[in-house]
Amino acid sequence: MFSPEGPTLRELAVQALSSVEHGYDLLAPKFDHTPFRTPDTILDAVASALAPLGPFDDGLDLCCGTGAGLAVLEGVCRGSVTGIDISAGMLEVARRRAGAGGRPGGPRAALVRGDARALPFAPASGSAPAFDLVVSFGAFGHFLPGELPGLFAQVHSVLRPGGRFAFPVVAPARPGTRAYWALLGFDAAMRIRNAVWKPPFVMYYRAFRLADVRRELAYAGFDVETRALPEFGRRPDGSPRCRMVVATRTPAGRQPVSS
Questions:
Q1: Could you tell me how far CA 20 lies from the centroid of its own chain?
Q2: Beta 242-249 vs 159-170: how paired, if at all?
Q3: Contact call for residues 26 and 89 (beta carbons, < 8 A)
Q4: Which one-letter DSSP state was computed for residue 30?
Q5: pLDDT by residue (tens digit) across 168-218?
Q6: Which of 64, 109, 122, 207 is most buried, by CB atoms within 10 Å?
Q7: 151/169 Cα distance (integer angstroms)
Q8: Exposure pattern of 170-184 as b/e (b: 16+ CB <10 Å)?
Q9: How far apart are CA 64 and CA 108, in angstroms?
Q10: SS3 of 225, please?
Q11: How far is it, in rounded angstroms, from Cα 133 to Cα 82?
Q12: What's the CA dihedral at 23, 27, 28, 30 to 10 degrees?
């Protein structure tokens, strides 16, 4: 939940009535003291799950926010580390964090302001893609379902053949539970807000469904698998509480599969 250093109710209301970009500019100084910041437990679990797949050379944190996820890349990449976000305010916090020192001997993060739907790293004619690992943490609620094909195509375009696109997905709340009703109420409130107030603030926690994501990743040219993150255990039905999606860019000429 929110800590005493987090935003006030009034500050959250002002943010919610802004655009996504400006809202995060306003929230940035206090973002790390909110529940919207991906917990270190998830970051550490993803880092552990990625380690056997590496080492990687060049990594990108998609929608890097204040830079918490860059530490994951710094731990598994031996070349360059890059973060991209649409919010200048969030990047400024990430820049201060990077200036305070990253992993000793590790790659220093470059921070770029840009839109994930139009990545500025697309290779020019005849040049090679820039990355062999892309990660993202907690950002996909800011994209409408219809935007996923274009978003995944952008990621595919900047990955080298065989490169990986990895991100955690938490199991959805069970219908009827307190968490289920809380998320349902939040999404309903955001839809009402966007119906009556412009510009829209896209933040829908229930719109990012794993089955849809797997299908769109495969369509974009990825082999798709999921790996349970054992640190979070399993639900009563035996399914993982948290998984890591690993989408691998298929070599030229191969058809993607979804496993």
A1: 15
A2: antiparallel
A3: yes
A4: G
A5: 999 988 888 998 898 888 889 889 988 988 888 888 888 788 899 999 999
A6: 64
A7: 17
A8: eeebeeeeeeeeebe
A9: 14
A10: strand
A11: 10
A12: -170
Q: Is 222 exposed, middle or buried (CB count within 10 Å of its CB: 0-12, 13-18, 19+)?
A: buried
Q: Where are the alpha helices (DSSP H) in the chain?
A: 9-16, 20-27, 40-50, 70-76, 88-99, 148-158, 178-196, 210-220
Tally Cβ neighbours within 10 Å of residue 19. 15
Structure tokens at 179: 């968490």
Q: Write the DSSP assignment of 154-193 as a string of letters.
A: HHHHHEEEEEEEEEEEEPPPPTTSHHHHHHHHHHHHHHHH
What tokens appear for 145 in the block? 């379902």
Q: Which residue has the tokens 């349902």?
A: 184
User: Whole-model pTM above 0.85?
Assistant: yes
